[in-house]
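cache lookup: miss for this entity combination. No prior model stored, computing from scratch. Input as submitted by user K.M.:
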Amino acid sequence: MDTPFCDDVQIRVKDLRIAFGNKEVLHGITFDVPKHEIFAIIGPAQSGKSSLLRCLNRTLEFVADARATGLVEIDGEDVRKVRSVYELRRKVGMVAPLPVGLPLSIYDNVAFAPRSAGLHDRQELDTLVQHCLEQAALWDEVKDRLDSLGTKLSGGQQQRLTIARALSHQPSILCLDEFSIAIDPVTTMRIEDVLKELRKEMTIILVTNLVQQARRLAQRTMFLWNGEIVEQGPSEKIFSEHPTSQKTYDYVHGILGNEASLKRGTQASSPIARKTFRPGRFESAAGAAHSSHCDARFKPVVRGFPCAQASVNEYQAR
Amino acid sequence: MFTETPFGKYKRRSELLARCVLGGMVAAMIIPLFLIVGYLVKEAWPLLSLNFLFTNPTGGMRHGGIWSALLGTLYLVTLSLLIAAPIGVMAAVYLNEYARDSWLTRVINLAVVNLAGVPSIVHALFGLGAFVLFAGMGRSILAASLTLAIMTMPVIIASTKEALSAVPLSFREACWNVGASRWQTIRGIVLPNSISGILTGVILQVSRTAGETAPIMFTGAVFFKKIEAGNPLAYSIWDQCMALSMHLFTITTQVTDAPHALPFATAVVLLATVLVVNTISIALRMYLRSRKRW
C-alpha cells in the first residue's frame, strides 16, 4: 500500500453528531483525512456512513429533521461558516449509491455543473465533458451519442455518468457512496484504477460495503458501527488477521453478530461487551487482550474472500 | 394436470363478478353522458350555425345569436387564468421546493386545501366585497376575473404541487450535490419534467371557470350587453359583460317565451367551448409527455 503523498489534513471531523428527529445516528465521531489519501469507511447499513458524507458538503440540510453538531473542516475552514455553500459543494464531488442520470442529454448531464457555475464557453465545455467522461471510463461507449438521453443508459453506464458529473466541477475531494453496487466487476476494476490515478489530484472518501475494495484501494480505513467508530487506522492493520478490535475482525470476515461471534462474546474477557454489545467498548483496555486473543485463534483463516459461513464452520470445528 | 380446485373455481367466478361490476360502473357513467350530449344536440340542432355564434342576441334574447355571451366567457376565462396560473404555479413551486416543513407551511397547505372546497357563491360574495366595492373596480370583467382567479388558484396550487412532487427527489439531490442552487435545479430539471402535469392542472380549470355562474353574477356579468358583433376586441376589462353560463340561466328562467332550441344551443356552445379547450389540453399533454425523459 502506498504511503500518503503528503500529510496536510484536508478534512477534519471532530465530535460529529447527527440526529434525525430524536434518533441520533452518529454519536460523536472524530477523524482526519490528509490530502491525496483514499480513505475508506466501512460498516453495516444504518451505521451513519451516508449521513456523514452529506455533512461534508452540507446537503444534510435538505433533510427536514436532520441536525448535525460538531465540527467539520475542509481545508481548514468550518463548512458551517463558508461564504458560498455552492463553492463548497463544487469542492466536494459526491457520487450516490444508485445511479442518477439526470433527464438531460449525456453531454448536458456532465455540463450541468460547470454551466451552473457560469461556464458557457462551448469549446471549454466540450473539452471538459470529454475529459470527465474519459476519467469515468465512459467516453468510448458514448462518444458517438452525446446527444442521447442520460436516462436511457444502462445502470452501470449511468453510474459512470454520475461519476463523470461529480468530476465535472473539478472537486478536490471525491466522495463515493458505494459506487460499485450497480456496476459489473470489470468496470468496477476500471474505475478503481481511475481512482488510483485520481488520488494524485484529489482526496477520495470511499464508503463501501465491499471490504475487499477498501483493502485494495484505501490507505486508511475506518470501521463505523451503530454510529460510533470501532476502529480506524491503516488498511493493512484493519484487514489483517489481528486488528485492534475483535469487532473489526468479525465484520471484515462477515461473522459480526452471528452465532460464532456471539459465542465468542461470551468467552470474551469483558462482561460489558457481552451484555450490551456496543462498539467502542472494545477499544479500551480490553483491546490489547483481544488482539492477542484472536492472534492465536484466527490465524488459519485465509486472506482473500472470506465467506461468512466458511468462517463460522471453521470456528465451530475448532 | 392443471385441474381446477374448488378455490380456483371461486377465484374465477369472483374475478368475473368483479369485472362485470366494475365495467358496469363505467357504463353507468358513460351512458348518461352520451344521453345528455345527444339530447342537447338534438334539441339545439335547428339553431346551430356559425351565424348563431357570431351575432348578438336580439328581441329581448328571443332571437339572434350569442356572440356577446361567448366573447364574455372567453374574456373571463382567459383573464382569470392569466391571473391565477402564474400566481398559483409560482406559489406551488415555493411551497413544494423552498418551504421547510414547519407548522406555518402545514397551516398554509391546509388553508389551500380548504380554500379549494369553499363554495363558489362564497367566493362571489368575497369578490363583491373586495374587488367591486373595496377596490373600487365596480362590476367589471376585471373584478369578475379576479374573483374567478381566487376561486381556481387553490386547485391550481394543489395540482401543480402534485406534478412537482412527481419529479424524483434523487434528481434534485444530484443537482444540489454539484453545487447548483435551488433555482437552477428548478429551472433546469424540475420544471421541464413537470410542465405537462402543471399545464394539465391549469387548463382543466378552464372548464370550471367557463361553467361557473355564481362568482360572476355579483361581480361583472349582466343580463344583456350590446357589443359590436364579430369583433373580438369589443369588450374592455372595465366593461360589464355577458357570459354563457349566466346567459343560459337567464334565458331559461327570465325569458319565458324564448324559442325552445335557444337554451339548448347555448348549452351546446358552452359544452363545445369546454370540449375544445380540453382537447387542446390533452393534445398538449401528450406532446409534452412524449418529451418527458425518464
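stored under new cache key. The interface with chain B takes residues 57, 59, 62, 64-65, 86-90, 93-94, 96, 98, 100-104, 112-113, 116-117, 149, 151, 162, 165-166, 168-169 of chain A (CB under 8 Å).
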